[in-house]
Amino acid sequence: MRIKIKRLDKALPLPEYKTTGAVAFDLAARETITIGPKELALIPTGLVVQTPPGHMLSIFARSSIAKKKGLMLANSVGVIDQDYCGPEDEIKISVYNFTDAPTTVEQWERIAQGVFVKIEKAEWEETEEIITPTRGGFGSTGK
After folding, report:
1. Do 14 and 80 touch, CB atoms closer than 8 A?
2. DSSP H helical ranges for the chain
3. Which domains does the chain have, with CATH numbers?
4. E strand map for the chain
5. Do residues 97 and 38 touch, judged by C-beta distance below 8 A?
6. Rounded to 10 degrees, what is the CA torsion of 60, 32, 85, 93?
7. What is d(CA 66, CA 98) in angstroms, rounded to the nearest whole number?
8. What is the pTM of this model?
9. In sequence order, which residues have a C-beta less than 8 Å from that of residue 114 and are 6 or more positions away?
């Protein structure tokens, strides 16, 4: 799949898959940023990505970001729509510092990872009754 990408700073590295078996590519910080304790921040990546029709770009935390930086994605998973690709639609990573100390993300430090996911749009068919039996609530399958 060929993806159009614009770097807002040509010095930034293009995203890359680090191994042949990697399903996600890494996203890095465009600039050094310090996030205060219990604060939210948007980390710019310096990238505008033209997600292909019929796909979305999902953004996930790198597995090391919580342990090494005390950060988590503020929205758990980022969803980049296929029409978020205008000239100024820079992908930014929303993070939360869950520690009691400031933490710094260095310029070009890899902080998140992206995956293109094929999607289909639903066509709703409203009904008055769903005939499948009720299964139970959260955590009910093991009881």
Report:
1. no
2. 65-69
3. 4-17+25-115 (2.70.40.10)
4. 4-7, 25-28, 33-35, 40-44, 47-50, 55-61, 71-73, 78-80, 92-97, 103-105, 110-118
5. yes
6. 30
7. 9
8. 0.85
9. 15, 24, 25, 27, 49, 57, 58, 59, 60, 80, 91
Both tokens of 110, joined, read: 């890899």
- What type of residue sits at position 19? T
Nearest alpha-carbon partner for 66 in 98, 18, 43, 39 = 98
Per-residue pLDDT tens digits for 16-43: 999 999 999 999 999 999 999 999 999 9
Over the stretch 108-124, which tens digit does the pLDDT of each residue have? 999 999 999 999 999 99
